[in-house]
Amino acid sequence: MLVAAIPGVLKERLGEDASKAFLDLVKEIGFESEKQYVGKAELLTSKTELKDEVDRINERITLESSKINERITLEIGKLRNEMEKSSKENIRWMFLFWIGQIAVMTAILKLFFK
To answer: What is the pTM of this model?
Structure first.
């Protein structure tokens, strides 16, 4: 709370009632200024807390995204292995099909030319 005394010269010029009114006005202005400073301090505290929370969230996102990247890399590796096995198996079956086709065509041609 603001405690102030009005100088005698000012009291004489303004009078008793005006001096008290002036003092009340100064107190009110001081109170409003104090509220503004408190509000600004609270705002800064809130900003700091918010920044800290955002930093924690960013760290968590970074950690989770690195876990996801590792999992994706692992799954891609598994998929490549499966594709490689599948390709080898397809080539084996194609050769078997071709050999069968050659055998059938040879048999048909032998029957045809006899």
So the answer is: 0.45
